[in-house]
Amino acid sequence: MFSYIGRMWHMWDAMYLHHKTQLKIILELKSLDISVAPRETSEQHHDRTVQLWNVVHEWHTQFDKFMTYQKQYVGSLYTWIKLNVIPIDTNLKPNSSQPHETTPPIKRVLHAWHEILGKLPDEAAKKAINTFAEIVKTILVHQEDELKLRMKIEDTRRDYGKKRRQFDDWAQKYIHQTAGILPEDRNPDGARPDPMAERKAAMEKLELSMKELEEMYVKQCRVVREKSLSLLRTNLPELFRVVSDFSLQSAGMFKGVWSIAHTNDQLDE
After folding, report:
1. pTM for this one?
2. Which end of the chain is less enclosed by CB atoms within 10 A, N or C?
3. Cα angle, residue 72 at apex, residues 241 and 53 outer, rounded to 5°
């Protein structure tokens, strides 16, 4: 147990240094110029965002399990020790009428460990990680809306290209067939619209719809880019501040438990 507590202390100390470095990098990135970065969400970019969400979600799940199981283990062991381990009589003189009893070293260590687990701000850390997971999920939703709109534009372009070719073929044949015929002779009583004007209007309407979608897509790309950047700049520093603070407190508290265990170990010698 002495060795395990020592490893926990060094682990959280190393985690604090990593999180502190990450926080420094994130704060420096807040002033980064991203004007040259791609303005559209690519499939690869979206895949990386999905990967990030999976990692952060798993981080939250495993952190929650780690803290829950550790509290249950130490709490159960400490309760068992309190109920079953009899204090040690350190005064073994035959004629002593009032023996002096001391608490077993393992009980003092478990008591200290049990106490620090109750003081650690793990709920704040879990909340910060979960909040960031939700932030990444929000970015994912915006990216998916952008990608769906891009697919719609691509479908509209294909449809427009197909109908444009059909119209051009028909228009060429129509002009050839009606060559030399005056407009008033083609529709003498004005009973029906001119086929050329009717089909041309339909093509113009489709072209206008495509341009509106393209304008909407450009706007959506800008919104996704700005919202994603704003969310990351706001929430990433807070995430690493919280986990840095948790790591620092964990390292300090486990160092205290290690000192108690180390002192007990030396006394036993």
Report:
1. 0.77
2. C
3. 40
